[in-house]
UniProtKB/TrEMBL annotation:
Disordered: annotated segments: 1-23
Record bears the keyword Coiled coil: yes
Source species, domain of life: Eukaryota
A Pfam family recorded for this sequence: HSF_DNA-bind
Organism name: Capsicum annuum (Capsicum pepper)
Entries under SMART domains matching the protein: HSF
GO CC list: nucleus
Protein name as annotated: HSF-type DNA-binding domain-containing protein
Length: 201
């Protein structure tokens, strides 16, 4: 009489590895989670003039006021105020800008009420340039297809980022100069201590 085969026992170690891999696979990128949380919290507010919100279909979102978004929302959720940096992040995850006259972005896996899809969004495997073409003034599609207002906005964002980089560079140079001055003082103190009569005796 044939008997049913008894499955081989699964060790605790193998089981924990499988569970660990499964939990890691289901965890979305922090940037995506924060962006989703930002939109959900804005949705709960009763303010008529929203800074950012889901679009009408819930298939994407719109940044209605980039200046206020950079000044208020980005520092709160992402610890910086660089709008162009936020857009570059969207670009690396495959978001598309779908409107020419407003900052509206869309991804097929980033939808209102579908948080579980966030874990399926991954970074682009090949990224020739992390800078989106619609923020690059030299790109042909900007010159040919965009409005003058959007070109000016893109140029302004580039100028702001350039100023931020210059400021960061200056701060780093000041810190380096400060540490070099401390180094000189420490060496002087050490030299004086070594040359003091008390140490010679």
């Amino acid at each position: 009489m044939a008997t049913d085969a008894i499955p081989a026992p699964v060790s605790d170690r193998n089981l924990s590895r499988k569970m660990g891999r499964s939990s890691r696979m289901k965890c979305p990128a922090p940037f995506l989670s924060k962006t989703y949380d930002l939109l959900e919290e804005q949705e709960e507010e009763s303010s008529i003039n929203k800074v950012v919100s889901w679009n009408g279909e819930g298939s994407g979102f719109v940044v209605w006021c980039p200046a206020e978004f950079s000044e208020v929302m980005l520092p709160k959720y992402f610890k910086h105020n660089n709008f162009s940096s936020f857009i570059r992040q969207l670009n690396t995850y495959g978001f598309k800008k779908i409107a020419s006259k407003r900052w509206e972005f869309q991804h097929e896996k980033f939808q209102k009420g579908c948080r579980h899809l966030l874990s399926e969004i991954t970074r682009k495997k090949y990224e020739p340039s992390a800078f989106p073409t619609y923020l690059n003034p030299s790109a042909k599609n900007i010159i040919l297809g965009s409005t003058k207002e959007e070109i000016n906005t893109s140029r302004q964002l580039l100028m702001e980022e350039n100023q931020n980089l210059k400021r960061e560079k200056m701060e780093l140079q000041m810190q380096i100069a400060h540490f070099k001055a401390l180094e000189v003082k420490l060496l002087q103190c050490l030299t004086q201590c070594m040359e003091s009569p008390h140490n010679k005796n």
